[in-house]
Fold this protein.
Amino acid sequence: MCGIVGYIGHQNALPILIGGLKRLEYRGYDSSGIAYKNGNGIEIYKTKGRIRELEEIVPFPYEDANVGIGHTRWATHGAPSTTNAHPHCVGGVAVVHNGIIENYREIKSRLIAEGQTFNSETDTEVVPQLISWNMKRGLPLYESIVESISTLKGSFALGIMSESDPAILYAAKKGSPLVIGYGEGEFFFASDIPAMLSHTKRFLFLQDGQICTITAAKVDIHSFGQHEPAEKEQSIVEVDWTAAMAEKDGYPHFMLKEIHEQRRAVEDTLKEWNDCSEKLFEDLKLTLKNTFGLRRIHIAACGTSYHAALVGRYVIEELARIPVSVEIASEYRYMKPIIEHDTLFISITQSGETADTLAAQREAKCKGARTLTICNVVGSTASREADLVLYTRAGPEIGVASTKTFTSQMAALCLLASGLALKRGRLMNGELKVLMSQLLKIPELIEKVMKKSGEIEALAATLINARDFLYLGRGVNYPIALEGALKLKEISYIHAEGYPAGEMKHGSIALIDEAMPVVALAPMNSHFDKILSNIEEVRARGARVIVVTDEPGAFSHKADDVVVVPSAHPLFSAFVTVVPLQLLAYHIAVLKGCDVDRPRNLAKSVTVE
Ligand code: AGP
């Protein structure tokens, strides 16, 4: 969480830094700041609040500066304030940081005993303090930086500049994401690609334990503690994302734009392997031998990606008949998972940088599992560290609430399940063809649901005063109930629970009264009669019932509101039932005046444990 940017080159750094920070604001948005080189030294502007507040204090027209660093913060140590905002500057060395310095207390006490004076409550400040102290001891700048970094425990992506050598930027990484952007006679660094997309599409993903020195002419990459540049040439990745993909494109919020992009995102994810051809298996490096030998699958993920994993379990088990266990990644990493040589571990993560998911993947790998990641960001840590990668093609997702990456993850899982089923002889070619034709219809069905936005907005207007919601689903729609509740909670701050409909009578039914709207997912499938009974049960207790169904006739006297969705293949119905829930949460949040793209206390990418 937190976003960092840096620029060095022939252009004015200030609009580039501020523009980059705006694109990283989803990572943290309680305070921000920039540092740049002017004629007399390093100039720093920082403030509590959003980037627009930073823009108000940076003098305009901008000074001409060709080197600078910037930061947008999600507070961990010390409340959001101007003093705690980054950059932190000590002895002419300015630092921006994403991550957590776990041993900052010890370092701080030691440096205070040595006579250094601290200004902020942050963990970050120990970094410029250490560098400046090492310089006072006589070490040159680069050596001071490397020596200081070797003292740090925890995770960091650091951007550093110094008055003493203003034509060089330093960037270092351990545990937190950091990407270098390659331009012509100019270089960038940032926590994430969208911050640099309007300037370049060529990126290098710095690896843990690497530090680079960046001038306007070149980037040199070293391992911590080594003077010689890294021996192995690292590859520069060219992405096909465009700057426009990271713009709102006329929509009032990124979230609404991304909900609308789902048709395209799912279509693009399905396109590459739409016949579950050999190419899927070639790309995944899964041979006949190792798919037959596969005895179990573990999936670990967080938040929305975890809900996609739960959908994946139903689909893989039904089609490929392989036992699948799904765990929340922060639990998996500590639960001593039982992994045998015939276990496939799958991580699901749109960012590829979620700390808990990465830790789960590392745990599985070190215990001998073959690891596959379903990921949206080419070159991200998860994709680099996993043995196999299945990319979702959702394009950059900026809104904190995941939408298009969720449906794209489900699409990837359906492909994987179908492919495994074919390889393992659970599906014949003809059956697969029929199934794929159903899956390929999904983008069109999503588009049809999108037309309901106005109707759902009107429904939302009648629900904004509710204090609690219950979402119910069965089978593949149980995870959609969880996802609907999460969407509502995170952007509208209304308490909501997702429940397997059959489990409700074992406790949570006690909560139901006239004040509690219940959203029930009831597409026509083998659970239909059961969920119908559950709906009767909540109606009998006075709840307001909102049903999402493709069978509206069944609810003429049994629901207060019915959102009609098109019929999909029962295994794929989650694609059409989740979209109304995303729209409902979005419209409720907007009507309540909430900041939909930057909900309080949250950040898009959770890179700390
Ligand atoms: C949901 O809307 C959130 N964005 C959050 O739950 C997210 O899915 C979770 O933090 C996992 O992120 P990842 O997919 O990048 O790993």
